[in-house]
Structure formats: C-alpha cells, structure tokens
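Reminder to self: tokens first, then the designed residues, so the page reads top to bottom the way the pipeline ran.
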C-alpha cells in the first residue's frame, strides 16, 4: 500500500472521514434501490470494499481497484478498464474522478463498459462552502491526495457529452468539517438546517445518470419520410412517363 493510500484510509477511519462515510452509505443505498441487472461494479476503492456494494440489487457486485486491495475483485486502471464493452448494468464511482489524473477518460470508459440504459452513480465533493476551504488550507488535502473538486453542474455537462441522461444532484454534507462535531447532535441539526437554508452550499453530492440508447432509422426510410411531405402537404406520386 502506498503512503497516499494509507493516509486516505486513516482519514476515512477518523472523525471527518466517518462523517462523510456515514452519509454516503445511506445516500448510495437509496440510489441503488432501483438499479437492477446482472452486474454492478464499483470503480475505485473508498472505505471498506463492501461499504456500498452490500446495497447493490444486482445479481453480482464487485470492486475494481487500481492496485491490489482488500475486497477487490479486479485490479485495473479506471481510465482503461479490462472489461468488455456493454457488459455492466450499474457502475459506482465514489470520488474516483477526483483522485485520477484523467477524469474524462474514466467517464469515457464508463460509457463504453455500461450497457444501454445502464446506471451510473457518481459521488463528488462540491467546490463550495466549508469543506472546500478545509481542503484548501489542509496540508496534503482533505481528504488526503484529492486532486480536484468538480462542481456538480460541470460534471453533468461532461456526462451529457459522453452520452448520458443526468438527473438532479442529491446534495449532502452540510455540517462544518470539524472533528468535534462528528459524534454530536449538532451535526444532525446543521445537516437539516443546511438542506433548508442553503441547499446549493453542500459539501458533496451524488449524481445519477443513465446511458442513452439511440434508436436508428434506416437511411431509405428516412429519405422516404423526408421527401413524402413538403410544406405539410403530401407529395403526389411520381407521374408515369408515357
């Protein structure tokens, strides 16, 4: 295990990481309730290997990590997945885009690997509010090793470019990133107040997207339909040449 991975695991096991994990476990479980199929893949390790996959409704679920890790069923780079195209029904990216140097390539791989109408669930930190400030002023980052924070609106645009229909973000993490709040009732009060008073200033979000399937119209039929109607009037049949 690399030093960066060890630092991240330690952070996730600590009070701040625990605040994040506790909320994400519930929000991901809710998102996966209606995501069915044969295969569910989590690309990128985030906490325990079965933290999210235990809630999958598919027949099979597996973790794909970029290095040998506890619970990983496959070792592969997120930007170059060793998987067949159109072979996965549900994919989860838990902050994976924020730790990889090639987030656009990861999204292209997700679009390639997911089957038509497949579900993509993405977790991300919002670069607004107190959590982004904590990250900016923490040596090594908060969480450690984070390369970037991607706004939910920008990520939605990226997903649309690679062929996804994107739903509205589910926002969470409104409590201040203070270890002293992790195990107190004040955290719950701040979460509820934030959702009501400043919903756009969440510390993190969940985006759900569905891979679009484009229906194809045969060229002959499309040409016939285009020439059959002119100005809203039916075109007369071709005249016989005597």
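Designed residues (242 positions):
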């Amino acid at each position: 295990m690399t030093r960066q991975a060890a630092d991240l695991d330690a952070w996730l096991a600590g009070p701040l990481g625990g605040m994040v994990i506790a909320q994400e476990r519930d929000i991901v479980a809710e998102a996966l309730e209606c995501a069915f199929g044969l295969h569910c893949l989590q690309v990128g390790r985030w906490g325990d290997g079965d933290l999210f996959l235990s809630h999958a409704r598919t027949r099979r679920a597996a973790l794909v990590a970029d290095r040998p890790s506890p619970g990983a069923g496959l070792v592969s780079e997120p930007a170059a997945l060793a998987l067949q195209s159109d072979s996965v029904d549900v994919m989860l990216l838990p902050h994976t885009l924020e730790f990889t140097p090639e987030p656009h390539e990861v999204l292209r791989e997700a679009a390639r690997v997911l089957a038509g109408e497949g579900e993509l669930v993405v977790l991300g930190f919002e670069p607004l509010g107190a959590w982004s400030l904590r990250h900016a002023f923490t040596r090594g980052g908060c969480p450690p090793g984070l390369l970037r924070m991607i706004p939910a609106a920008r990520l939605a645009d990226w997903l649309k470019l690679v062929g996804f229909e994107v739903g509205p973000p589910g926002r969470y993490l409104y409590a201040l990133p203070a270890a002293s709040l992790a195990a107190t009732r004040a955290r719950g009060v701040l979460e509820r107040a934030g959702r009501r008073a400043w919903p756009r200033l969440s510390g993190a979000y969940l985006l759900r997207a569905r891979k679009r399937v484009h229906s194809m119209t045969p060229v002959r039929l499309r040409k016939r339909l285009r020439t059959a109607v002119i100005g809203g009037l039916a075109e007369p049949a071709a005249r016989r040449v005597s």
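The longest helix spans residues 15-31.
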